[in-house]
Design brief:
single chain; about 200 residues; alpha+beta; Maf protein; 8-stranded mixed sheet; 8 strands; globular; binds inosinic acid
Length: about 200
């Protein structure tokens, strides 16, 4: 069975991705399998750039097909911020709560305006022999609101999904995984993955 290396050490992501890819004939391993892999500097200016940087570095190091993702939040009133800076927005030392409070503060002047936003995820697949790259994207549209709910992570409490009438942090893990930007990106990637 062909090996597919997930370019992440994040246990939550590994579990989610393994579930989403379970119907494909790959032996799926993550970076805990390659503990000596050097740190990868994600210095790309877009989600696509960063996902390719990660997938390529891991594929070249391991000699195996690699899948990497890059994701984050884009707020329209802030011209797409925090975008690729989502994980370290404001201050790299902050926790999730401090970070979304900072985001809310930045939006405080827009009291009666809908603060449309989206979670976006880009998946990059890199084949080291042919150097072939495949890209797929997924997004969830929503609005930034005052925090509600205590599931999930990151900006979930302040991301409201109008069709569901709930913030992302009010969804169970199962509900979130069904509609998440990551699961949508994987669904879009699957036909390409089946061809590699
Ligand atoms: P990563 O590239 O998937 O590690 O995500 C980068 C950052 O985007 C995270 O540290 C979070 O701040 C934010 N983010 C990505 N996906 C989610 C999500 O599903 N919920 C909340 N925040 C997210």
């Amino acid at each position: 069975m062909r090996r597919l290396v997930l370019a992440t050490r994040n246990k939550g992501k590994v579990t989610e991705l393994k579930e989403l890819l379970a119907d494909l004939a790959f032996e799926i391993v993550d970076l805990s399998y390659y503990s000596d892999l050097p740190e990868i500097i994600e210095d790309g200016g877009t989600f696509v750039d960063n996902a390719i940087i990660k997938a390529k570095a891991v594929a070249e190091y391991t000699g195996e097909l690699s899948l990497a993702d890059d994701s984050g939040l884009e707020v329209d009133l802030l011209n797409g911020e925090p975008g690729v800076y989502s994980a370290r927005y404001g201050n790299p030392e902050w926790n999730d709560r401090e970070r979304y409070q900072y985001l809310l503060k930045k939006l405080a002047d827009y009291k009666d305006t809908r603060k449309t936003a989206r979670f976006r995820c880009v998946m990059a697949l890199y084949e080291p022999q042919s150097k072939q790259v495949e890209i797929a994207e997924g997004a969830v549209e929503g609005e930034i609101v005052e925090p509600r709910g205590n599931h999930g992570f990151g900006y979930d409490p302040v991301f409201y999904i109008p069709e569901l009438g709930k913030t992302m942090a009010e969804l169970s893990e199962e509900e979130k995984n069904r509609i998440s930007h990551r699961s949508r990106a994987i669904a879009n990637l699957k036909p390409k993955l089946a061809k590699v």
